[in-house]
Design a protein that fits this description.
5-stranded mixed sheet, D-Maltodextrin-Binding Protein, domain 2, elongated, about 30% helix, alpha/beta
């Protein structure tokens, strides 16, 4: 929702006319940016880019690895569970019904599988228990895949990630960000976060400035106390496009998705051992992406893309 800043998921450490789909090797291309960051190469820093970048849509599916269609005749209904208040991913619509990116994606999956589905909203902290006690069949609520949760539930392939990105003031936007480009630059980051750990490991010549929270971090950039800030791209995208930013800032460079620091991604959870449903959802996710419906949903909900 433009103008609204969202909060990082509690389970994570967290309009464009041009459609740039990071498909095929999309997420691997984004990952290569991380590898490039780790291997600094001598190169003249690029001139700041001030024009608007094309809207980017993440692609997590390799067309060369088309999933097999499972026996969908064994499925009769899917009861989706989702969170009550995490816009734009999950929220209550004006008509009182579940709405948001996750909800619309669930409905698209049901259309693809050609099966009846229900969507029930619950408090986030009750979702896992509701799934394991058979009060629902699948959780689609921006649930981060973690080793701990894998002991309780099974996950589909990721359908999005929470990448990290740099943000600068609009008059200093860079098309690409590498360690050598930020030598001596002041970079703000949340103290004790995975983002700070990544900068300490990869951007060793930058001058890091830790801040206690998002408000302090973003205020420092608005005031010019730092040259860049580095953090969760999803929350930063909504801040950039919201009123709180005062139209001061924009993304610099592309996404960083190193799983060791930023997680395995966001998946749909199913009960342990429910391989049929997991495989059906994986197949439907690929089909929804292949047909462009995923892209349409992403562009509808993200006027400034985290990618």
């Amino acid at each position: 929702m433009p103008g609204q800043t969202i909060i990082l998921p509690r389970h994570v450490f967290a309009s464009g006319l041009v459609r740039t789909i990071l498909a095929a090797a999309g997420i691997w291309l984004a990952a290569s940016l991380c590898g490039g960051a780790a291997q600094a190469q001598t190169q003249t820093a690029p001139k700041p880019r001030t024009e608007a970048a094309p809207q980017a849509v993440p692609g997590f599916w390799d067309p060369r690895r088309r999933p097999e269609r499972p026996d969908l005749s064994r499925l009769t209904v899917i009861r989706f569970l989702t969170e009550t208040d995490y816009p734009p991913f999950n929220f209550t619509g004006a008509d009182g019904n579940p709405a948001g990116f996750n909800v619309d994606l669930a409905r698209a999956l049901c259309d693809e599988i050609k099966i009846s589905c229900t969507v029930q909203m619950r408090r986030f902290e009750t979702l896992i228990d509701a799934l394991t006690s058979n009060r629902g069949d699948a959780i689609i609520a921006s649930l981060a895949v973690t080793p701990e949760l894998r002991t309780k539930v099974d996950f589909t392939d990721p359908y999005y990630r929470a990448p990290a990105r740099f943000v600068s003031r609009r008059d200093a936007v860079m098309a690409e960000v590498r360690p050598e480009y930020l030598e001596g630059k002041k970079v703000g980051v949340i103290a004790g976060s995975a983002h700070e750990a990544y900068l300490k490991a990869m951007f060793t010549d930058a001058e890091l400035h830790p801040y206690p929270n998002d408000d302090a971090l973003r205020t420092a950039l608005r005031r010019g106390e730092v040259d860049f800030i580095f953090g969760d791209a999803i929350s930063l995208a909504f801040w950039i496009n919201g009123t709180d930013s005062g139209d001061c800032c924009a993304f610099s460079g592309g996404p960083f998705v190193e799983s060791r620091y930023f997680g395995e991604g966001i998946g749909i959870a199913v009960r342990k051992g429910n391989d049929l449903l997991r495989q059906a959802l994986n197949w439907a996710l690929f089909r929804v992406w292949e047909k462009g419906r995923y892209t349409d949903l992403w562009l509808h909900y993200f006027s400034v893309s985290p990618f």
